[in-house]
Design a protein that fits this description.
Helices cover 40% and strands 18% of the residues. The protein is an alpha+beta fold. It comes from Mesorhizobium hawassense.
């Protein structure tokens, strides 16, 4: 599983796209045709992944948006990011 540190810059995988639908979002992996539905948290997280922001900056934005303690979000979002890398939705940040 990918190690997501505070300075890790995350970006969407080349074949992944997010579409907002109704009250949620779906992620399509074009190469495989896999479709994933997102809950509000994942949708908000992916909405801030831009290939320029560090993981720490994304967590700061989410902490402000959801009025949640940053320390609480940090571990949860690191686990989510690692899972999204493992699924091929986020590009592997490498070593």
């Amino acid at each position: 599983m990918a190690d997501i540190g505070s300075e890790t810059v995350l970006r969407m995988a080349d074949d992944a796209s997010v579409q907002h639908v109704g009250d949620g979002a779906v992620v399509l992996l074009a190469r495989s045709g896999q479709l994933y539905t997102c809950n509000d948290t994942t949708e908000a997280f992916l909405g801030k992944v831009d290939g320029a922001r560090s993981f720490d900056q994304i967590v700061d934005l989410l902490s402000d948006e959801f009025e949640v303690d940053k320390a609480t979000l940090d571990d949860d979002m690191a686990a989510l990011a690692a899972e999204l890398v493992a699924e091929g939705i986020l590009a592997d940040p490498g070593p």
